[in-house]
Design a protein that fits this description.
Number of strands of chain B: 2
Oligomer: heterodimer
Structural class of chain B: mainly alpha
Structural class of chain A: mainly alpha
Order of helices and strands of chain B: HHHHHHHEEHHHHHHH
Distance between the termini of chain A: 51 Å
Radius of gyration of chain A: 20 Å
Largest interface: A-B, 47 and 47 residues
Number of strands of chain A: 2
Radius of gyration of chain B: 21 Å
Strand content of chain A: under 5%
Largest sheet of chain B: 2 strands, antiparallel
Chain lengths: ~325, ~325
């Protein structure tokens, strides 16, 4: 046998790939926010993982610790994330892009470390899943919905759908809806102001537009979408823990963004599929390496994708060279 | 009527007068505020505890300062926000681990080897990556993203070779000495002394040598410096030698006082950025001073908050600094 053989049986494991597909869709959502920020407004948000954490934790804490219903907790968690974006953006969006990048990265780390330390609220590094006197899980309602979708699929003649199939459908449904909505809104006068700010802030100012207001709107919309991505990560893993929101996950989304190309919402879908195929494909190469090395390999792939694309193909696969190229 | 009159006359409210003074003398104002907080701490927690925490803070501060000097030089001279700088520290720490533990050589050998290797890494990356990108006219954002990609690659390389487990350098972590009734570990004392010696040397070099002047000239205006006959390529390579070797040293010292693990550098990175911004970007002295002050502040904060929250103090200082004075304590308002 070759040492570098490929385990083909695993490639056909549908359950595994459905889980990966749900992750891929979730990261399209995360990258959609970045596309609005970086591709259309020209602000370098390095803190998506932090907004995602705020969304997931707010949803988890509200459903577990209070009597607020799951369906109310969802919009509230989006609001919390948006509010946080406003608090962070108000002082830092006035500054140059490098300061803003450092601040948002630092903010995301503050959120993660706070989640790790505030054990009373977030259960520390173990994370939130189930508990309380009447033993509830944060995703009880989601599981009900998932079961309903499953039985609906069975009624359509699907004999035994995979457990994560409903999540996959909901995530990609959300991707389609939000991509369409964002595409429509960026073609409105509001979207044109964003692009004007990206191209020339002073010119936009001269036309009577306040760049800070528009940048804050752009950032808080990205934060709200990140909160949605946060829920789906939590549903996929069935827990909310600090390690799900490491800074590298922001840069998974950046890799997708550059793969897909700037100023193109639909490209992100292809970008995410390519990135996750690369990431998960390595699992099936029977490399003689241990788990630490496998994790390292995944980080290296993300790093390499970012470096090579920025250096050699800054417009990505589907980016519009005439509209937006990195670094111009 | 009188009230309205009063508010119209400028500079009357003491708050405004203070703010005006603080704006003209930011370093003094910062020192005054820190002094007040210090006195408050001493009054509530006792002189001994505060002095002990400050002494611990000098260890951490030396490490921050060593890392921040290189970071700020590269930032100022090359307009490169090097998010991979933290992983330079990690790299240095693991080279020291290789020499000190795997090969069994003493730490005094490991330190220079780590510094040289990290300097070589810095220069190689300059030649392979940053110089061609500058040639292409890459923008700030492009370089930031590439440095982040590089950070992940360096960290994964370290993790691939040495694994994710926490390692220890072969240094004496247990014995300590007593100075003026304060306890300090021998290794911490070595870090403070070595750190201050190296930082003093670097400071003098940057201030008085021709190379230091050339660096400042390039940092002001690269094209103008080139026109003036400065060999900018050479100076930039030497900048990387500086940044790399200091980062390597900081990494070994961090590894010796804490432990060696793949996240070592990244966990220090944001505090180093805080020192760079507080000190004013490109200002080596500013970064040096801010790094040490930040270390002391963070350790003193453990008197008030649980030590688990230590990491956050640096970020909070960073955000406050950005809101109040983004050009840094010593900087002048340019474009921020």
């Amino acid at each position: 046998m070759l040492p570098l053989g490929v385990e083909f049986s695993a490639f056909t494991d549908a359950g595994f790939w459905i889980g990966v597909g749900a992750f891929a869709g979730t990261y399209v959502l995360l990258a959609l926010g970045l596309q609005l920020n970086v591709g259309y407004t020209g602000i370098t948000n390095f803190g998506q993982a932090g907004f995602m954490a705020i969304g997931a934790y707010t949803m988890g804490v509200l459903t577990l610790e209070t009597s607020i219903s799951f369906w109310l907790a969802l919009p509230l968690s989006m609001l919390a994330s948006m509010l946080f974006a406003l608090i962070i953006g108000l002082p830092s969006l006035r500054l140059r892009e490098d300061y803003f990048a450092i601040t948002t990265l630092a903010m995301a780390e503050v959120v993660r470390i706070t989640a790790r330390n505030a054990k009373g609220l977030t259960n520390g590094s173990e994370g939130l899943s189930c508990g309380g006197p009447d033993f509830r899980c944060f995703d009880d309602t989601w599981r009900n919905v998932s079961d309903q979708i499953e039985s609906w699929l069975q009624s359509l003649g699907w004999s035994d759908p995979e457990a994560l199939l409903p999540l996959l459908l909901v995530v990609w449904g959300m991707v389609l809806v939000l991509t369409l909505v964002l595409q429509r809104t960026t073609n409105t006068p509001w979207g044109r102001v964003l692009r004007a700010i990206r191209e020339d802030e002073d010119a936009a100012k001269a036309l009577g537009k306040n760049p800070l207001v528009y940048k804050l709107q752009s950032l808080s919309i990205a934060a709200a979408i990140a909160a949605i991505a946060g829920w789906f990560i939590a549903f996929n893993i069935a827990s909310i823990a600090p390690t799900e929101f490491l800074p590298i996950f922001t840069f998974y989304a950046y890799a997708i963004l550059i793969l897909g190309g700037l100023a193109s919402y639909w490209g992100l879908i292809a970008g995410s599929v390519v990135l996750w195929t690369l990431l998960e494909g390595t699992r099936f190469l029977e490399l003689p390496i241990d788990a630490d090395q496998e994790a390292a390999l995944r980080y290296a792939i993300v790093g390499l994708v970012i470096i090579l694309l920025v250096a050699f193909r800054p417009q990505g696969m589907f980016g519009k060279r005439e509209e937006m190229v990195l670094g111009e | 009527m009188e009230g309205a009159d009063l508010t119209l006359r400028p500079g009357l409210s003491s708050r405004e007068r203070f703010l005006d003074w603080a704006n003209r003398r930011p370093a003094l104002a910062a020192a005054a505020i820190l002094g007040l907080v210090g006195i408050g701490l001493i009054a509530s927690k006792g002189l001994h505890d505060v002095a002990q925490a400050s002494l611990n803070g000098l260890t951490l501060g030396s490490i921050y300062a060593l890392g921040a000097v290189g970071l700020t030089l590269v930032y100022g001279i090359l307009r490169l926000v090097n998010f991979a700088h933290g992983d330079f520290l990690t790299f240095g720490a693991y080279i020291a681990f290789l020499v000190n533990v795997t090969w069994g050589l003493p730490i005094v050998v490991a330190i220079p080897v780590a510094m040289v290797c990290t300097a070589i890494l810095g220069v190689l990356l300059e030649i392979a990556m940053w110089r061609p990108m500058r040639g292409k006219g890459a923008g700030l954002f492009q370089l930031m993203l590439m440095s982040i990609g590089l950070a992940f690659m360096l960290r994964s390389m370290v993790q691939f070779i040495w694994g994710g487990a926490t390692r220890e350098l072969d240094v004496d972590n247990t014995s300590s000495v007593e100075i003026f009734g304060l306890r300090v570990g021998e290794i911490e004392l070595v870090v403070i002394v070595l750190g201050f010696l190296v930082l003093g040397g670097v400071g003098l070099m940057l201030r008085y040598s021709l190379l230091g002047k050339q660096m400042r000239a390039i940092s002001d205006d690269l094209d103008l410096a080139e026109t003036a006959g400065i060999d900018t390529k050479r100076v930039i390579v030497l900048t990387w030698v500086f940044a790399g070797s200091l980062a390597g040293l900081a990494g070994v010292l961090a590894g010796a006082t804490q432990a060696v693990e793949p996240n070592l550098g990244f966990e220090l990175l944001l505090a180093m950025f805080a020192a760079v911004i507080l000190g004013g970007i490109g200002d080596a002295f500013g970064a040096l001073a801010a790094g040490i002050v930040l270390g002391v502040m963070i350790e003193c904060s453990t008197l008030v908050f649980d030590a688990r929250w230590k990491l956050i103090v640096g970020f909070v200082v960073l955000v406050i600094a950005l809101v109040i004075r983004p050009q840094g304590i010593f900087g002048k308002a340019k474009s921020v």
